Amino acid sequence: MQDEIIRLSNISKNYGANETLKNINLYILRNEFLTLLGPSGCGKTTTLRIIGGFEQPTKGEILFEGVNINTLPPFKRRVNTVFQKYALFTHMDVYENIAFGLKIKKLDKKTIENKVTEMLELVNLPGYEKRSVDSLSGGEQQRIAIARALVNEPEVLLLDEPLGALDLKLRKGMQIELKNIQQRTGITFVYVTHDQEEALTMSDTIAVMKNGTIQQIGTPADIYNEPKNAFVADFIGESNIISGTMIEDCLVEFSGHRFECVDKGFGNSEKVDVVIRPEDVKLVDAQEGMIEGIVKSVVFKGVHYEMIILCNNLLWKVHSTVMEPVNSRVGMRILPNDIHTMKKVLDE
To answer: Which of 59, 54, 52 is closest to 19 using CA atoms?
Structure first.
């Protein structure tokens, strides 16, 4: 049986007439790395702050191991938070920053020393005890903030875009490091980001949010390969999203051609959105393609070429390790398993 630690039940949050969250339902499992993913203003940070006790929901229940904690103040919740700006104490050295919460608990000096040493080992910064936090790099400060949060042994760690201030290379390295820390400690992580690559890299589960609602919950593979709607498909990775018609089960028409697919359960001749990832389009000679088009632009991306191809008045994005010259005519082949059809959803 899955071990549920947190449940948000029918959570809504209003700021005056503005409804920031709309009937959020979400459960979080013990030892899970769950990411709240979405664009700015979608409600993900508000959701995190409600879990942490920094905001109160207008409606709904927050359950921790089945117990309502709506009115429990942050310092009494078995959670800790790492903020984007870290909030380290600049007048204290690294040791004093990490030990701060332990001293508040009045633990003995030896226990504090052992725990601080253990945390520095965990975040790969042994020997940093006496360093000034101002002398640390952004990545090192982020690790100290995590160590300070973890030393108090919370059951849940909340992380609000903690990698946002780091450069690209360091951010990628810290993605792996954070996942390793979570796996080694076994602590539940709830992570907020607008960066889909971060979410795909680190998460066990992703909840994609838009306009105060959860659009889809699933594993990274499920979210990427089987998006529930056009918003999720477009937000998670790059996609060609094309209007089409479901002729019948396993047969869809778009871009002037009928394609075999694997999707069922639509009405005959139902209008649908079709999602095709750029890497799933196979370029062939023009006469061998299911459809054909003209290459309008080519950009080298390092591991592949990104080509924009005009086909039946639509611009397609295609990724390929083989470059086709601008203005050349190419064919495109798409296999049934690479075609994802979705019901059309009107914008809110």
So the answer is: 59
Maximum distance among all alpha carbons in the chain?
A: 78
Residue 348 lies in a domain: no
Task: Report yes or no: 250 and 263 within 8 Å, Cβ to Cβ.
Answer: yes
Q: How many domains does the chain have?
A: 2
CB atoms closer than 10 angstroms to residue 222 = 14
pLDDT tens for 124-161 read 899 999 999 889 888 888 888 888 888 888 999 999 98
CB–CB of 255/245 below 8 Å?
no
Q: Which domain holds residue 24?
A: 4-230
Count how many Cα atoms sit within 13 Å of the Cα of residue 162 in the half-sphere of its side chain.
28
In terms of domains, do 170 and 277 share one?
Answer: no
CB 227 within 8 A of CB 339: no
Q: Quote the distance between the C-alpha of residue 27 and its chain's center.
A: 16
* Residue owning tokens 């700006």: 85
Domain boundary among 182, 210, 230: 230
